[in-house]
Design brief:
The chain is 59% helix and 6% strand. It has a two-stranded antiparallel ribbon. Strands 3-6 form a two-stranded antiparallel sheet. The radius of gyration is 27 Å and the shape is elongated. The termini are far apart. Helix 1 runs antiparallel to helix 2 and helix 3 packs across helix 4.
Amino acid sequence: GALLLAVAALVVVALVRPGSWPVAAPFLLLWVLSPLIARWISQPPRVDPTQGLSAPGGRLLRSTARRTWRFFETFVGPEDTFLPPDNFQEDPMPVLAHRTSPTNIGLYLGATVSARDLGWLGMLETVDRLEATLATMGRLERFRGHFYNWYETTDLRPLEPRYVSTVDSGNLASQLLVLGNACRGALDRPLLDPEALAGIE
């Protein structure tokens, strides 16, 4: 299709302005080749699947993940009905936002199973946390089965204006798939997992 358009454009240029076709030809050639060029420059870099993280890279990743988990570990509890608050403001004074969204809930569920995988939670605490949050989710008011985009975490009322966000609903759905796979995978994991020692480290 692009080749035919380029040839047609070159013919029109040659008929209307015969002296300018040598100038137009390179641009038309680039136009024809542009899909191939775009595909070539969009290819992901080749990665060796056997190459793991370096020791410093692994420590940095674990340290960052641990600090992220600390937010959930600190703020998700009975005060917020086991839902993750939206954010914590440190300056100019500490303020915890007692609202949450499907994205926040999904991220917390994924972070909980990741904390288990990384050795920061035992199996029983993981199950307790997941059950508490899933039970609260069952109590949330919904619109035709869909979660609203914002809820007050202390009394579970939907915040005004009430609306359903396809983005937030999709984020929650993807994390529920991760949670389902993690729960099925946990059936085959040993209770004394070597990852627990790495988490302590």
